[in-house]
Amino acid sequence: MRSSTPEVLKKVVESKIKNVFFTSLRTIELAFGTDFDEYEKMRSEILRVGNNSIREIKELINAEFGIEEAPEQVKVKFTNNKEKANG
Q1: Half-sphere exposure (Cβ direction) of 26: Cα atoms closer than 13 Å
Q2: What was the pLDDT predicted at 46?
Q3: Rounded to an integer, what distance in angstroms lies between the CA atom of residue 54 and that of residue 60?
Q4: pLDDT digits (tens, 9 = 90+) for 17-36
Q5: How far apart are CA 61 and CA 13, in angstroms?
Q6: What does the pLDDT read at residue 84?
Q7: Closest residue by Cα to residue 60 from 6, 2, 8, 5
Q8: Which helix (H) or strand (E) holds 4?
Q9: Is 77 helix (H, G, I), strand (E, B) or coil?
Q10: Residues of the chain with pLDDT under 70
């Protein structure tokens, strides 16, 4: 069994997000090809939004959620750190 850490969680989330935007691009390419006026613009936008989402979710994991390492699992506490500081 692989190690469970916040870094593993980030890699799994990144993989799932990449799967969404790569599948979107592949679907467009299969349906319409790549030889149309707006293809490069559309491709750039999909990749930009996907990569920005990956960066944002990694920052969110680091900043907003308490993550404790435990044997065989990663525990994610869905408690906002800001609320913790106030309460």
Answers
A1: 6
A2: 94
A3: 10
A4: 999 999 999 999 999 999 99
A5: 10
A6: 55
A7: 6
A8: none
A9: strand
A10: 1-4, 64-87
Given this model, what pLDDT does residue 30 score?
96
Q: What is the pLDDT of residue 1?
A: 42
Measure the CA–CA gap between 56 and 36, rounded to whole angstroms: 31
CA–CA gap between residue 38 and residue 62 (Å, rounded): 36
State which amino acid sits at residue 6.
P
Rounded to an integer, what distance in angstroms lies between the CA atom of residue 22 and that of residue 86?
41
The residues, any chain, with a CB within 8 Å of residue 17's CB and separated by 6 or more, are: 50, 53, 54, 57
> What is the value of pTM for the model shown?
0.65
Residue 74, both tokens: 């990663």
Dump the DSSP string for 33-74: -S-STTHHHHHHHHHHHHHHHHHHHHHHHHHHEEEEEETTEE
Residue 27 has what pLDDT?
96
Amino acid at 1: M
- Residue 34 tokens, joined: 């790549």
